[in-house]
TrEMBL record:
It comes from the Bacteria. The lineage of its organism: Bacteria, Pseudomonadati, Pseudomonadota, Alphaproteobacteria, Acetobacterales. The keyword Signal applies. GO terms for molecular function: beta-glucosidase activity. Belongs to the glycosyl hydrolase 3 family. PANTHER family: BETA-GLUCOSIDASE (PTHR42715). This is Beta-glucosidase-related glycosidase. Residues 664-730 form the Fibronectin type III-like domain. GO terms for biological process: carbohydrate metabolic process. Its EC number is 3.2.1.21. It comes from Commensalibacter intestini A911. Residues 1-20 form the signal peptide.
Length: 749
């Protein structure tokens, strides 16, 4: 090598950002704040390293562009390579909120625990269980070497047909926001970044990649965005996923209002990533506040946050400080949850499978809802002699929802050969058979099964039995909404026919949403088991036989029919758009984009709509029966109305007035001085022995009984009298109430 070449080489070496030991000490120093450590890291990074950090690569072979899996990836939704010289771990990014997914068996044979559907988790009304749910999923992710989990979902269920309601947490912002916040904390306690999604108004699945959701600021802040606000402020998730849909004209992932709201108003320090195929631009998105482009190499039209971003920064179209901020936010999240200091590596140690499945089962047992129980037909006696089990593949397993959140259960999923075969299908059952669990609980009984496709055979079996349990199912999945609320196929006819056999009939529903039940008056009991997760079979059996006293409540109002819902007709509901070819679908031919105006329910999502319109649904939000009875006997309020941080806590006394021990979901609703529809302001779950009485302290979410004032840019509680009621569901006229008179209160944003 010539001397001149040596000089050149040494000058190149000098120009690579060297980091002084003092700086390295800063980002490695665990006694310093994540902020200080992340800042020090950004300072030490090259431009290429920053760019590398802000876009992920699809990590499943045979993706939309058929690229090989990136080297170092474990196989999952996405991957960002490590930056070893700075100790920055690779981001191994996996779905999702219900458990660790294994799409297309990319990690051969890797099975995991699936939680029950989101309606069950929120239906527990139990923040402690939500934390346990997150912790279990976080532990399973970490064990497999993942450090970013793409859950939990917190879009409000505005309609009972929506394909992904089973991934979300119901219709109420206070319930959904608080439950997901605990879930996030649980995930992150395992050094795994949790992702709150999909910001925002991803209330419709069909045509989700093009639809433009329209809503005013006040209405948005008081509904879906309130759920996100609670989730983000309380849960402090490392990441947020922006949605596919547009909101008020701009794609969510380049919508500066949506992307700035958490950062500017809620003090959010983490990063915002796109949904897969949700990236549409470089400069607009970066300047709006997007931080990471997901699976950029295969899902978007091009990699917007790669070379293009680097050039945009060089040209000054995106400030260097913005790119630094993107990198900072990703690093902050990794440091904050401990993913930097405790890098996840695939472990070959056995997991505590039994403990994890027990958590999933406990959640199912606490969230499954007993809807009807005529003459206390349930719980069943374990000495019953002849049990007929009909339909729903109950001899084999329990139904699960489809799409990216689908988990592969231990023992393998049972995939139906009928119905949708391509993604988000096939329709899959977890191998947790309710029938086997029933046999185990009633060992002396003859338990016989009829598949239900032959109605004549089913009726014959029913007439020879002492009790009939019909399992009725309705699948739902990501990417499309159900067309109606009917049970598919012959199931209504089957139930009607079996009910005529004159034997007690119990219907167990496994559905992603409420369904119409034309046979309701002809059956004795109805149990809504939603999608009950990988231990769903024993959970259902334990409820049927009273080993567990049901305490789940509806987190979504159950209409009598679609005529009662705010948007009876949703164009294209039931249709799938071209999800198989997202790249083609996202070509910027934006002609004919559908808009969906949320101008009917506005902020009055769910039960508030029914209250405002004086419509009596079949079952309201919060409804659910128990094998015992509860009574609210007293409510008092403790107020601390200081200017800075006003708080009100309700002390609610609840009594178990029945003969069995049980748990009650204590619900507190508030009404504002103008008498606008009430809203859940607080909740908790309490266990009470038969005859026992307890006083529960419930802090009230004051934003739920405040107005968001767009001009003043703050939450205001107008002066006047507020009514605070403890009652057993949102529309109940019973319960105990108290009032409080307030002068105008402004809440900190
Ligand atoms: C879904 C996201 C999911 C992502 C990665 C998208 O289709 O909308 O929720 O996390 O895929 O699988």
């Amino acid at each position: 090598m010539k001397l001149s070449q040596l000089f050149l080489l040494s000058s190149i070496l000098v120009s690579i950002p060297s980091f002084a030991h003092a700086e390295e000490a800063t980002w490695k120093d665990t006694s310093l704040s994540p902020e200080a450590r992340a800042k020090a890291l950004v300072k030490a990074m090259t431009q290429d390293e920053k760019i590398q950090l802000v876009h992920s690569l699809y990590a499943i072979p045979n993706g939309p562009k058929n690229l090989p899996m990136p080297k170092g990836a474990l196989g999952s939704a996405a991957y960002v390579p490590s930056i070893e010289r700075l100790g920055i771990p690779a981001q191994q990014i996996t779905d999702a909120g219900l458990g660790v997914a294994n799409p297309g068996n990319v990690r051969p044979g890797d099975a995991a625990t699936s939680l029950p559907s989101g309606q069950i988790l929120s239906g527990t009304f139990d923040p402690k269980l939500a934390y346990e749910a997150g912790k279990m999923t976080g532990a399973e992710a970490f064990h497999r070497g993942f450090n970013v989990l793409l859950g939990g979902g917190v879009v409000l269920a505005r309609d009972p047909r929506i394909g992904r309601n089973f991934e979300y947490l119901g219709e109420d912002p206070v319930l959904a926001g608080n439950i997901v916040a605990e879930q996030v904390k649980g995930v992150q306690s395992e050094h795994v970044v949790s992702t709150v999604k999909h910001l925002a108004f991803n209330n419709i699945e069909t045509n989700r990649k093009k639809i433009d959701m329209k809503i005013g600021e006040k209405e948005g802040r008081e509904s879906d965005l309130l759920a996100f606000e609670i989730a983000i402020k309380k849960g402090n998730p490392g990441s947020i996923m922006c949605a596919y849909n547009k909101v008020n004209g701009d794609y969510s992932c380049e919508n500066s209002y949506l992307l700035q709201l958490p950062k500017k108003d809620w003090g959010y320090q983490g990063y915002v990533m796109t949904d897969w195929g949700g990236g549409h631009s470089t400069v607009k998105a970066a300047n709006a506040g997007l931080d990471q482009e997901s699976a950029a190499d295969q899902f978007d039209n091009k990699i917007y946050f790669g070379k293009d971003l680097q050039e945009a920064v060089a040209k000054g179209e995106v400030q260097q400080s913005r790119l630094d901020d993107m990198a900072y936010r990703v690093l902050y999240a990794l440091i904050q949850v401990g993913a930097y200091d405790h890098p996840a590596t695939k472990s070959d140690q056995p997991e505590d499978v039994a403990a994890h499945e027990a958590i999933s089962q406990k959640i199912a047992e606490n969230g499954i809802v007993l809807l009807q129980n005529k003459q206390n037909i349930l719980p069943l006696s374990t000495t019953v002699k002849n049990i007929a089990i009909i339909g729903g593949h109950a001899n084999e397993g329990v139904l699960s929802g489809g799409g990216s959140s689908q988990v592969t259960a231990r023992g393998g999923n049972i995939k139906l050969k009928t119905g949708m075969q391509t993604w988000p299908g096939p329709v899959s059952y977890f191998p947790s058979s309710p029938m086997k669990a029933i046999e185990a609980l009633a060992p002396e009984a003859k338990v016989k099964f009829a598949a239900g496709d032959n109605i004549h055979e089913a009726v014959k079996l029913a007439s020879q039995s002492d009790v009939v349990i019909v399992f009725a199912t309705k699948w739902s999945a990501e990417s499309f909404d159900n067309a109606n609320l009917s049970l598919p196929g012959n199931q209504d006819h089957l139930i009607e026919s079996v009910a005529k056999a004159g034997k007690p009939v119990i219907v167990v529903l496994e559905t992603g949403n409420p369904v119409e039940m034309p046979w309701l008056n002809n059956v004795d009991a109805v149990v809504e088991a939603w999608f009950p997760g990988t231990s769903g079979g024993p959970a259902i059996a334990n409820i049927l036989f009273g080993k567990v006293n049901p305490s789940g409540r509806l987190s979504i109002t159950w209409p009598k029919s679609l005529a009662q819902v705010p948007y009876p007709k949703i164009t294209n509901a039931g249709q799938r758009w071209n999800e198989d070819d997202p790249v083609k679908e996202d070509k910027p031919d934006l002609s004919g984009i559908a808009t969906f105006n949320l101008d009917v329910d506005k902020a009055n999502v769910g039960y508030r709509w029914y209250e405002a319109k004086k419509i009596t649904p079949l079952y309201p939000f919060g409804y659910g029966l128990s094998y015992t009875t509860f009574k609210y006997t007293k409510i008092t309020l403790n107020n601390n109305l200081s200017e800075k941080n006003p708080t009100i806590t309700a002390e609610v006394t609840v009594e178990n007035t029945g003969k069995r021990d049980g748990e009650d979901a204590v619900q507190v609703y508030g009404t504002m001085p103008d008498g606008s529809p009430s809203r859940l302001v607080g909740f908790n779950k309490v266990a009470l022995k038969a005859g026992e009485s307890k006083t529960v302290s419930i802090p009230l979410a004051l934003q739920a009984i405040a107005n968001y004032e767009s001009k003043a840019h703050r939450w205001e509680m107008p002066a006047g009298e507020y009514t605070i009621t403890a009652k057993s569901n949102a529309l109940s006229t019973e319960g105990v109430k108290t009032t409080v008179h307030l002068n105008q209160l402004n809440l900190a944003d």
